[in-house]
Amino acid sequence: MSGIGRASVLIGAGTIVSRLTGIIRSVVLVAAIGSVNSGAADAFAVANQLPNNIYAIISAGLLSAVVVPQIVKAAAHHDGGSAFVSKLVTLGVAGLLLTTILAVVAAPVLVHLYADRFTTEQLALATAFAYWCLPQVFFYGLYALVGEILNARRVYGPYTWAPIVNNAVSIAGFVAFIVLFGGPITAVGVWTPEMIAVVGGTATAGIVVQAVILLCFWRAARLRVRPDFRWRGVGLNHLGRLAGWTFLMMLVGQLAGIVQSRVLSGASENGPAIAASQYAWLLFMLPYSIIVLSIGTPYFTQLSEHAAAGRDEDVRRDIGQSIRTLGFFIVFATAALAVGAVPASRIFTNTAAQAAQAAPVLLCFLVSLVPLAVLFVIQRTFYAYNDTRTPFFFTLVQGVIVAATAWIASALLPLSLLAAGVALGQSLASIVQLVIATILLERKLGGLRIGSWMLALGRFALAAVPAAGAGWLTFVLLGGVGGWTTSSQLLGAVGAAIIGLVALGVYVAFLALLRAPELSVAAQLVRRMLPGGRGA
For a Cys-Cys bond, which of 68, 209, 264, 326 suits 152, CB 3.0-4.6 Å? Predict the structure, then answer.
């Protein structure tokens, strides 16, 4: 547990700094191009999400699912896995380069695919942004490939800390835009090639620097890598079979995302749309990234080792421990962010009224925060057993529900509530996905001891009720929607922090009264995060 604790602290600290600088980056971008009711922001959001979506396939899917377990196995080879990794890197770089070229050539088609309800002028602006943004595909993929290899070799820090440099470059570039052109510039028709180049070029420059920085830490992996186009002999065929199912799974997710984007493009300039949904998702992902990824990633490496050794009992214990530890933090985060949704949304909007419009989108996403934390553990347990086929089928169900609920929202809801309806549909789909995944893993392992971690989650939920009540009362006492917490982006962040701290105090106090055993484990993790804390 000590190794897990140290790695969790390292990843958690880096993720916190990365996410905080990412928030500053987004705040500056909103000051430059707006968010709610901004046609320019929605155009840039579509263009900039294209390389991100491909990155999601590479990092969240293919690499996390198959590379870590395979490199762990390859480490037992006489060369420590160098031959396997050489072939993998050569194949990966070649594939990334080809994919990037094809994506840039297909930029107009891709933009229209994601935003068919844009006006002609808005489609042209989004396409211009896309030409600048799509080269990110290569550098996102390189960053993901190298980062997952480092993770598999238990070198966790660089992958987490490199995005901070990306954020710094982006902040500088977007500030330069404001200095040169002013802001927020939300109207589509006033954008010039120079303005497009500054925003799009800045976004891509940050990703390039992020990938290059990560390469500087390659020596820590203790692997000798050279170009090797002989892709037979070290298990790459097996890797390809595993990746095939994962690719299909990510393809399902991307198809569902396309449906969502096409639906939301119809709400652009008429309420929260694509950009506002992305910022709500960013807020949603903040606790997920800090909590779930920092604690869950080291557990996944350990769980993969136990699964490879056939130690199923240890795997069951890993599942329970990780879910209970994640649950302690993630249940509180859900409650705190829900009652602080309006001031939190003000961080990424330019007025209090826009914050009130965007808050329901965040609330609808939060419905699935706890289920997604549990799903992280369940799904990656399948990956640890080299089973990517089963996750495809329960992800297929989730994708169908996401697409169906987006279309239903489009048919039934006014444009001002469309983004919230799409977010709620996604949350409901994730809950169904978790239920199916848990049942299937229960059958696979012959028992997950679900009752033990469900009981822990129940304790956390019980403590979260008074915590949320205290947080909401604090928001009301601070003036509510019309108070000082929504008067600016900075004060929105301050108000959300105050609400969260009050809720945290009540949450911890109630869990102490309930004598929750997870409280001591969580306290140890927090102490390691503080200055002077020990990573023992």
Answer: 68
Q: What is the DSSP string of 199-227?
A: HHHHHHHHHHHHHHHHHTTGGGG------
Q: Is residue 534 part of a domain?
A: no
Domain count, the chain: 1
- C-alpha distances out from residue 478 to 359, 471, 484, 492, Å: 17, 11, 7, 11
Secondary structure in 3-state letters for 328-356 = HHHHHHHHHHHHCHHHHHHCCCCCHHHHH
* Cα gap 110→50, rounded to integer Å: 8
> In degrees rounded to 5, what are phi and psi of residue 37?
65, 25
Instruction: Summarize pLDDT for 174-229 with one digit per residue, the tens.
Output: 999 999 999 799 999 999 999 999 999 999 999 999 988 887 776 655 556 666 66
Place 322 in a pLDDT band, splitting at 50, 70 and 90: confident
What is the C-alpha radius of gyration for the chain, rounded to an integer number of angstroms? Answer: 23
- Is 102 part of a structural domain of the chain? yes
Question: Is 507 within 8 Å of 463 (Cβ atoms)?
Answer: yes
Q: What is the pTM of this model?
A: 0.83
Residue 535 within any structural domain of the chain: no
Give domain status of residue 510, yes or no.
yes
User: Which residue range is the domain that position 267 belongs to?
Assistant: 2-529
Tell me the pLDDT tens digit for each residue of 148-172. 777 665 665 667 778 889 999 999 9
Structure tokens, 74 = 């390859």
Dihedral sign of CA atoms 378, 293, 72, 243 in order: positive
Count of CB atoms within 10 A of residue 232's CB?
A: 8
